[in-house]
């Protein structure tokens, strides 16, 4: 995904949530499980002191959860605390997009670096504004 894609900022926010939240569970479709495991290995290689490592669960409905709370979803947008991706259209993005972005952020040193999370990292995410775009 390129920075000019309409969902770029949302994918970046989803990846940041994955990397900075505690007790992350990645609910991944079968075809994404291997990519999720590679991301976890990458996190452990780049930050061996990190003790709270995400877990992967195979699931038909992709999502990112923290302590059972839905952080990122493609199907459940009941809470404005959940970053909701549309399944299709110009603003659509996939779990592989999020996993790749998270991998790139880990490579850059996120979350333990200054400024490597990209533009807008200090800004609060507006789910209302994001949802109004699609």
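Q: What amino acid sequence fits the structure above?
A:
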């Amino acid at each position: 995904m390129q920075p000019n894609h309409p969902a770029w900022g949302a994918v970046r926010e989803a990846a940041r949530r994955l990397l900075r939240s505690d007790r992350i569970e990645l609910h991944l479709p079968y075809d994404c499980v291997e990519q999720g495991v590679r991301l976890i290995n990458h996190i452990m290689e780049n930050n061996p002191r990190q003790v709270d490592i995400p877990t992967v669960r195979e699931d038909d409905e992709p999502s990112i959860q923290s302590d059972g709370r839905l952080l990122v979803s493609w199907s459940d947008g009941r809470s404005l605390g959940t970053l909701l991706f549309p399944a299709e259209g110009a603003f659509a993005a996939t779990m592989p997009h999020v996993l790749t972005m998270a991998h790139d952020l880990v490579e850059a040193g996120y979350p333990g670096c200054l400024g490597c999370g990209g533009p807008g990292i200090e800004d609060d995410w507006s789910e209302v504004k994001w949802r109004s775009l699609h």
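Q: And what stands out in the fold?
A: The two ends are 18 Å apart (CA to CA).
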